[in-house]
Specification:
This is Gypsy retrotransposon integrase-like protein 1. By secondary structure, the protein is α+β, with helices and mostly antiparallel strands. It is built from 13 helices and 16 strands.
Length: about 425
């Protein structure tokens, strides 16, 4: 503690705190404080040779070094560029007008921030925070935001789905329409996979409706094995109506993946890929794939699966090709469950390296990726993003519930990797 005499006059120190360094501030920030342009001290020194009143020795030395790049012609301040060109120095109002004209004017190609700054300099203009201001201007441009390329960097960590008991969790998906049709007119393959053993069931159909999906669940899953605790489906029209009635009747927990989010049901998506690869190698003609489907299933079930460290057949029947190992069944299944967890940790660690977090918060304005077969008169020139929307709720798993500007709520959540911040 410092003792201060009672009769001493203590002057308060006023300290301005900024969230970013001063050199990162926009031109607006640097000119709003005292109402003077950024080049006022430079112009004053070149015209009168006088320093600012509160300048220290260090400030004076920095000013002398800085003004060497500037000159006054008539009453106008210019900056000398490295190629000898004189660049007209602009204040805040003029800089905003030039950025808008060059970026969105008649000849404005909506270029990025760096290219915008370079083009303005080639046009013959300059201000001290040109590149930062150009980046911020482009960031707030509505046309640039909705037409920006889609984002492929994951914004959140991988949340792996797993099961610790055989046939407890099933994922179901559809392959199709398949062209050409099979010899019996089938165009679809309905695939179901167990999340622990990776045991796959599949059947082909000419037409696929919710009643046929419900029949597949009964005949290929419930009647053959047991009632699963959970089913993971996407939001297709084939998985509503009678499927909803079926899962309610048997008390099955029903999870729907987000729209255009195949990563949610990654296990069955990987199974689809494997089945298609096996079928391509088995078929003799392009129309006998439905006849080869049972052989493809057998090949898949008896093949070593990296994610579980065993074959699906061995985990279900506890034997490999006629070698009975009944006493080792529990050990094999526990080892498979442990292998699944270890494999998922490995995949999550690799996935985490590519994660680029998005600092989105409730109440933020965002744009949403336009996906799917949406008819739009603009065709190829349709924007990649729609919005803006408000974030109403965020989940720990990386999903967001949205609301439009009129207060209408979205009926389905959207993964944050389909969103990006909207700047105004």
């Amino acid at each position: 503690m410092i003792d201060i005499p009672a009769d001493a006059t203590v002057h308060h120190l006023l300290i301005e705190s900024r969230s970013v360094p001063t050199y990162c501030c926009l031109i607006n920030d640097t000119e709003l404080d005292d109402g003077l342009s950024w080049y006022h001290d430079i112009y004053h020194f070149l015209r009168l040779g006088a320093y600012p009143e509160a300048a220290t020795t260090k400030d004076k030395r920095a000013l002398r070094q800085l003004v060497a790049q500037f000159m006054i012609c008539g009453e106008t301040l210019y900056r000398r560029s490295t190629d000898g060109m004189l660049l007209l120095c602009l204040d805040r109002t003029s800089a905003d007008r030039v950025m808008r004209e060059v970026h969105v004017g008649v000849y404005g190609p909506h270029m990025g921030g760096h290219m915008l700054a370079r083009k303005i300099m080639r046009t013959g203009y300059f201000w001290l925070t040109m590149e930062t201001d150009c980046y911020q201007f482009v960031q707030r441009c509505l046309e640039c935001q909705v037409q920006e390329d889609l984002i492929h960097v994951p914004p959140s960590e991988l949340h792996a789905l797993t099961s610790l008991w055989p046939f407890s969790v099933r994922g179901i998906d559809i392959i199709g329409k398949i062209s050409p049709k099979s010899s019996i007119g089938h165009e679809f393959i309905l695939v179901a996979i167990d999340y622990l053993t990776k045991w796959m069931e599949a059947a082909s159909y000419a037409r696929l409706t919710s009643s046929r999906v419900a029949g597949f669940i009964r005949s290929h899953i419930i009647y053959r094995y047991e009632v699963p605790h959970e089913l993971i489906l996407d939001r297709g029209v084939h998985f509503i109506a009678e499927v909803d009635i079926l899962v309610q009747r048997y008390g099955i927990r029903h999870h729907r993946s987000s729209a255009y989010r195949p990563q949610t049901n990654r296990a069955v998506e990987a199974a689809n890929k494997n089945i298609k690869r096996i079928l391509r190698k088995l078929i003799e003609t392009s129309q006998d794939w439905s006849e080869k489907l049972p052989f493809a299933l057998w090949a898949y079930r008896t093949s070593f699966c990296t994610s579980i460290g065993a074959t699906p057949y061995s985990l279900v029947y506890d034997m490999e090709a006629r070698f009975d190992q009944l006493n080792l069944l529990d050990e094999s299944r526990l080892r498979a469950a442990d292998h699944v967890c270890a494999y998922q940790r490995k995949m999550a660690c690799a996935f985490k390296k590519r994660v680029k977090p998005k600092p989105l918060q409730i109440g933020d304005l965002v744009l949403k990726v336009i996906r799917g077969l949406i008819r739009d008169p603009r065709g190829k020139f349709r924007p990649n993003w729609s919005g803006p929307y408000f974030i109403r709720e965020l989940t720990p798993e990386g999903a967001a519930w949205l609301m439009d500007l009129d207060g209408n709520l979205f009926s389905e959540p959207t993964n944050v990797d389909r969103l990006k911040r909207y700047y105004v």
